[in-house]
Amino acid sequence: MNLIDLLLGEHAVLRTTLDHYEKALPSWTLSQMKEAGRLLESLLMTHGILEDELLFDILPVQQEGVRTTLQAMREEHQQQRRLLEGLRGEVTIVGARRALRELCEQVEEHFSIEERVLFGVAAETLGEDRLGALAREWTRRRGLCCAAKARV
């Protein structure tokens, strides 16, 4: 297992969550939308920070396309943060619903670009050994290394 496998797993879980949210949005109260925003903020921001630090920050940026894509991905992480922060403030039910829909759409497109472009670049340039070491660091940061050892 390598870092790309772990990030793809997180993408799958987040996509399932976002799909559920999109279907439930029409019937949710403002309070439910704000709570959903708090959960998404925790999930997406943690994912984004680990992705930036463990993968994006070490990818070679000599190629213009890679550099431009990385910059766009980081900017999108910030846009997602701003949308989520907006849900914590004074917002109407219509505004909250709009923000969550926009977030769901943006995250799906964001993941698609990462998977089509950056994960391939990472696999090609970093290699399996490095991606394996990064997976171990991801596991450590997620607190999973200690939990696995405790069960043995």
Explain what you see.
- The structure is a single chain.
- With 152 residues, this protein is mostly helical.
- It has a single domain, classed as Four Helix Bundle (Hemerythrin (Met), subunit A) (Up-down Bundle), CATH 1.20.120.
- It is 85% helix and 0% strand.
- It has 5 helices and no strands.
- It has helices at 3-24, 30-54, 64-88, 93-141, 144-151.
- It is elongated and about 50 Å long.
- The relative contact order is 0.17.
- The model has no long low-confidence stretch (mean pLDDT 91).
Output the CATH class name: Mainly Alpha
Provide the CATH architecture. Answer: Up-down Bundle
**Number of helical regions:** 5
Sheet with the most strands, sense and barrel status: none
* Domains, number: 1
Structural class: mainly alpha
Descriptive labels:
about 150 residues; mainly alpha; Four Helix Bundle (Hemerythrin (Met), subunit A); about 85% helix; elongated
What are the SSEs and their pairings?
Elements: H1 3-24, H2 30-54, H3 64-88, H4 93-141, H5 144-151
Helix pairs in contact: 1-2, 1-4, 2-3, 2-4, 3-4
Short synopsis of the structure:
This protein has 152 residues and is mainly alpha-helical. The chain has a single domain, classed as Four Helix Bundle (Hemerythrin (Met), subunit A) (Up-down Bundle). The chain contains five helices and no strands.
